[in-house]
Specification:
It contains 4 helices and 7 strands. It has about 150 residues and is α+β, with helices and mostly antiparallel strands.
Length: about 150
């Protein structure tokens, strides 16, 4: 299942990019993210691994991720694996002047185990609801990045 979201943020790409890289910033806009820790860090970023913990309905869900593509202030791609599903997240940044950034997030979800049986249901829900959760998260990031930019 794939979704795409686009948003324009009134802040430079270098600042918006930090909202993906910085663990403290990430926890402010990614829903239910309670922990984000580096496991392996590489100088070129590609190959860096991390562990994220999400709180979902009172239970913790651990996911392990790896940066698979990295061009500072332009692109980042991460693969995140969990027990129930895997995510392929691609972020593309396009500077529109000195203080405006267009961000595109493409998400591919591959369900595992019993969750795989629900893929058709999720696909239908996606048709009607679109990428609502993804859009809401990016809107939160937009608010935070713009507030930080204005306060700078």
């Amino acid at each position: 299942m794939k979704t795409t979201s686009n948003i324009t943020i009134e802040a430079p790409a270098s600042l918006v990019f930090l909202w993906l890289e910085d663990a403290d910033r990430l926890k402010q806009w990614v829903p239910n993210l309670i922990e984000d820790e580096a496991l392996v860090e590489t100088p070129e970023k590609v190959g860096s691994k991390f562990r994220q913990v999400f709180s979902e309905r009172g239970k913790e869900m651990v996911m392990i991720g790896e940066i698979t593509e990295y061009i500072e202030n332009e692109r980042m791609r991460v693969d995140i694996c969990g027990d129930m599903f895997d995510l392929d997240l691609q972020y593309s940044f396009k500077a529109e002047g000195a203080a405006r950034t267009h961000l595109t997030q493409e998400t591919s979800i591959k369900f595992k185990g019993m969750m795989k049986l629900l893929t058709p249901i999720f696909a239908v829900m996606n048709i009607f609801m679109g990428s609502k959760a993804q859009d809401e998260a990016l809107s939160r990031m937009k608010q935070l990045a713009e507030a930080e930019h204005k306060g700078a």
